[in-house]
């Protein structure tokens, strides 16, 4: 499919590779992240997914080791999953556009 979704293994991205930037909204200021390029980042994608398959991406985990609040006793290896669409040189010129549905949920434990 055209412009597949690539995802990066969070454990392959050291905090030094994360670039934080602000997004200014009318009523608040938010943050988002880019990553510096590194050959050590482990990127994967699934070019032949069907409509019966799904991918779960971690958008934020407050127990992520690099962004956990002080005093957090139990951390997890990654706070979020870097992801992006990209141009795959092996994609056929007449390939269908990638279609996706994004659903965000929040879980409290």
How is this fold's topology laid out?
Elements: E1 5-8, E2 18-24, E3 29-35, E4 43-45, E5 83-85
Antiparallel strand pairs: 1-4, 1-5, 2-3
Structural class: mainly beta
**Rounded average pLDDT:** 90
Distance between the termini: 37 Å
What does the main sheet amount to?
3 strands, antiparallel
Q: How many E strands?
A: 5
Beta-strand proportion = 15-25%
Query: Fraction of residues in helices?
Result: under 10%
Instruction: Count up the helices.
Output: 0
The strand line-up of the biggest sheet is: 4-1-5
Coarse morphology: globular
Computed Rg: 16 Å
Q: Uncertain regions: pLDDT < 50 for 5+ in a row?
A: none
What is the element string, with H for helices and E for strands?
A: EEEEE
Describe this structure in words.
The protein is mostly beta strands and 109 residues long. It is built from no helices and five strands. It has strands spanning 5-8, 18-24, 29-35, 43-45, 83-85. The strands form two sheets. The protein has a three-stranded antiparallel beta sheet, with no helix packed on it. A hairpin with a 4-residue loop joins strand 2 (18-24) and strand 3 (29-35). The radius of gyration is 16 Å and the shape is globular.
């Amino acid at each position: 499919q055209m412009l597949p979704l690539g995802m990066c293994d969070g454990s392959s991205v050291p905090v030094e590779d994360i670039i934080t930037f602000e997004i200014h909204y009318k009523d608040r200021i938010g943050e988002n992240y880019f990553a510096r390029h590194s050959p050590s980042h482990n990127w994967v994608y699934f070019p032949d997914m069907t409509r019966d398959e799904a991918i779960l991406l971690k958008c934020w985990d407050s127990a992520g080791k690099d962004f956990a609040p002080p005093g957090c006793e139990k951390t997890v290896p990654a706070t979020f999953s870097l992801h992006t669409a990209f141009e795959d040189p092996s994609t056929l010129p007449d390939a269908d556009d990638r279609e996706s549905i994004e659903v965000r949920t929040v879980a409290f434990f």
